[in-house]
Each structure stands twice: as C-alpha cells, then as structure tokens.
Write a structure and sequence with these properties.
295 residues; seven-stranded mixed beta sheet; globular
Length: 295
C-alpha cells in the first residue's frame, strides 16, 4: 500500500516541481482555496494557537493572520516539492544568505549547531551547505511511509547535505568530535517534546510549555558553537537568511541560557510577521500540565 500511494503521488509531485513560477504559484492559490475554504484543514487548531499567542488581538486581526498564514503554508509546502528540480543558481537567487562569513569564521575552530524555528521557509536552509567547508547535516523527522521518506531524504539532501534523524544526532556529533571532524548541524528546535522527555518548561509566546533542549545539551557537553538562523520572507518565493550568534563556546554558558536565548529570538521573529510561522502544529498542547517545580 505504501508503494502504491507513492507511485500514484510521485508523478504529480514531479509535474508540480517543473511548473514555471507563475503557474506554480497559481497552483498554490488553488491549493489554498481547497485547504482553507473547502477542507478547513486544522483551522480550529490554528485559530486557537493564534488566540493563545496573541490574546491582545481582535478576532478580525486573528482571522486576517490566519488567512495569510494558510496562503504562506501552501507556498512553503509546494516550495519543498519545487526543490526536486531547483538548480543551485535558482536557490541562491531566491534564498539570499546575508552574512555567511560569520559561519565561515566559526567553522574554522568549532562544530556549529544552527538552530531555527518553523518559520518562513526552512526547507531551503539546506542550501547553506553551498557556502561552507564543513560537512553539513540536517536533522529531520522520519516519514512513516518508507518510500516518501526516501524521497524526502533525496530532496532535502540536495547540495551535499546529509540527513540524520534526531535519534542519530548525538551519536554523529560525538563521533565527529572524537575524530576532530568539524560539522554544521541544522536543527529545527521549536517542536514539542513528549511529556515523558520534557526536562525544561518556559514561556513561549506568553504560554508556559515544555521545550526541547537537545541543542543546548550537546553544545554544553562538547563545547560547540550555536547560531540562530533567522529566515525572513522578502516577497512570494524569495527569502533572506541571517545568522545571529548565540554562543561560540557552549561549555561556558549557564544552564538553560542557550535554550532561553533561542526561544526569545524565535518569539521576536514570530511577532514581526506572525503569518509566516507554522501554526498548524500543536505547540501548546501541554500547557495545562506544568509540573509544580516549573510553575
């Protein structure tokens, strides 16, 4: 069944990926109409998340952000598909890396953890590997359909990026560390951890939730550098990426310092243009389960 689903879907994905941009974004508008107006995909979740994050906004403002978010979400999903046939020249034109010299300087001495949130376009972050000397890794969530998982790995592995799962990350960093091999590890770090694995709670967009602190744990144990990747949407189909240093020495940071800095940077980014954040995931689902020690 998994193979059948993939075989049926792949020709459509390939066709979408070769569409000229005018037709490509016209198709995205059509997908938006289906997702938002016909199927109403997770509209209640999105509205609830926006109300939690922006209690000061009116219902009219919330609905306006919601609609603009769905437009962007459809673009972002299809841009991942577009990566199948996206040339190096095209991605460099559409994903403008502003201050790569910061990474190029740090990588001479340290392995770097590049942390970001589900904001703007995180799929094209892998193109950063075009500008660096160190081996690039992207941490991803394995897809249950093994054929789609292989496809996702192939698409995201463009430009010599190696994909690893979150379970493989610590081992890969440790092996590189022991062999004195430097690398750059890209991590989307705003997911919600399982309650059984939640070790730290803090406010995110004004709501206390558990947060993932895997990047901080690795950085402090192995003295890695940590950099926040801020991706902004310039206009439809065009983005710019800016690196903001968090620390060049994880071992010298205080407990929770890296995680808290990441959270504050992610919040500031979301507040600038909230429609570009991924509001469909249940980021605040554990908010009513705060342990006594974190209340």
């Amino acid at each position: 069944m998994q193979l059948l689903v993939f075989v049926l879907a792949y020709p459509l994905l390939w066709l979408i990926s070769i569409l000229p941009y005018r037709l490509f974004y016209g198709f995205s508008d059509f997908v938006f109409f289906l997702v938002f107006h016909v199927f109403g995909y997770r509209k209640k979740v999105v509205k609830s998340n926006l109300e939690l994050a922006f209690p000061e906004k009116s219902q009219k403002e919330i609905l306006d952000i919601q609609k603009r978010f769905y437009h962007h979400m459809c673009d972002a999903f299809l841009e991942m598909v577009k990566t199948m046939n996206l040339s190096k020249e095209d991605v460099q034109k559409r994903y403008d890396v502003q201050n790569i010299e910061l990474i190029q300087e740090i990588e001479k001495e340290k392995t770097i953890l590049v942390v970001c949130s589900h904001y703007a376009n995180w799929e094209w972050n892998v193109s950063i590997n075009n500008y660096v000397e160190s081996k690039g890794y992207a941490v991803y969530q394995k897809v249950s359909n093994r054929y789609f998982d292989k496809w996702v790995r192939k698409v995201r592995a463009r430009w010599n990026t190696t994909l690893i799962t979150k379970e493989e990350t610590a081992k890969t960093v440790l092996v590189n560390y022991k062999n004195n091999v430097k690398g750059i590890f890209g991590m989307v770090s705003d997911q919600t951890p399982q309650m059984s694995r939640a070790q730290y709670w803090t406010e995110f967009m004004g709501v206390k939730v558990p947060v993932i602190n895997g990047a901080e744990s690795l950085a402090r144990k192995m003295d890695l550098a940590v950099v926040f990747l801020k991706v902004s949407k310039v206009k439809r189909g065009y983005y710019k990426a800016e690196f903001i240093p968090i620390t060049t020495s994880g071992a010298s940071t205080a407990k929770h310092e890296i995680t808290d800095t990441f959270i504050r940077l992610a919040e500031a980014q979301i507040k600038e243009k909230p429609e570009y954040y991924l509001w469909t995931h249940r980021r605040w689902k554990h908010r009513n389960k705060v342990p006594v020690e974190f209340q």
